[in-house]
Write a structure and sequence with these properties.
The protein is α/β, with parallel strands linked by helices. It is elongated.
Length: about 260
């Protein structure tokens, strides 16, 4: 603690959001606010690894809810609410070539590393900042020795997209990759980990409500689109939902935190 500020691992994401949620519920109870709808506080512990076990429960509650407020951190420094998020696709590309001695039989080999390199250049070429599409090959592996034409190689691919249409286009592209070199074979696995959260009219309505409340408390509330994925993007199929990230923000020194 430094004065009235707390710093440390996870203090912003998600300790502060949990505290805000609990205090909001506490305020409703102590002020005797009469609600015409049930309030459900759902806290999951596996969000950073994809909400593997909690996602079905989240989706079940989403189907029964009119509004979902997500206490993920607001945008740093500005405090803007996140009213749209990119979706994330996570894929693995495996390449099989033909191993030969790099000196005696180089012409008989098919390099899995060369095939992978050509595929990476093509994949990175799909990045389109105007569309909000980015492709990143963040991990590569291949080969066993310097004097051997590599017969195996693989890459981990992360792409981010702003719309459902772009997610479908990118996923189709990955699933239909073809080898660049004769004699090479490729295998693509993976899929969309989180869909995009597009800014709908419903989300805009919720933000406007929040903006008016903020104005009544004498501060200006703004909104932003962000590139990281989060659990709430899986709620979008239920169009009756209204949701946005409304949690804590930070100014100045940034506490230790994490994002997907």
């Amino acid at each position: 603690m430094e004065g009235n500020r707390a710093y440390g691992p996870g203090i912003l994401d998600m300790k502060s959001g949990i505290i805000q949620s609990l205090w909001a519920l506490k305020a409703l109870k102590e002020l005797g606010v009469r609600l015409d709808k049930k309030v459900v506080f759902l806290c999951n512990t596996d969000e950073e690894i994809g909400s593997v076990t909690s996602r079905p429960l989240i989706e079940t509650e989403a189907r029964k809810s009119k509004v979902a407020l997500i206490p993920e951190p607001a945008v740093a420094n500005s405090g803007a609410l996140k009213t749209s998020r990119k979706g994330i696709g996570i894929f693995r590309l495996k390449v099989k070539g033909i191993a030969t001695h790099a000196g005696n039989h180089h012409d008989k080999g098919v390099s899995a590393i060369e095939e992978l390199a050509r595929q990476i250049l093509a994949l990175h070429g799909l990045t389109d900042y105007e569309k909000g599409t980015t492709v990143n090959v963040g991990v590569i592996r291949g080969g066993t020795r310097g004097n051997k034409v590599a017969d195996t190689a693989e890459a981990e691919i992360d792409f981010r997209v702003a719309t459902h249409a772009e997610a479908e286009r990118m996923e189709n592209y990955l699933r239909n990759l073809q080898p660049k070199l004769k004699g090479a074979f490729i295998e693509v696995t993976g899929g969309m980990n989180r869909p995009p959260m597009e800014r709908t009219a419903a989300i805009g309505q919720l933000f406007e409500t929040a903006r008016r409340i903020a104005a009544s408390l004498s501060f200006n509330l703004t909104e932003a689109a962000v590139g990281e994925a989060a659990t709430e993007t899986s709620l979008q199929p239920w169009e009756s939902q209204l949701w946005t990230d409304w949690g804590a923000s930070v100014t100045g020194r940034t506490p230790n935190t994490s994002m997907s």
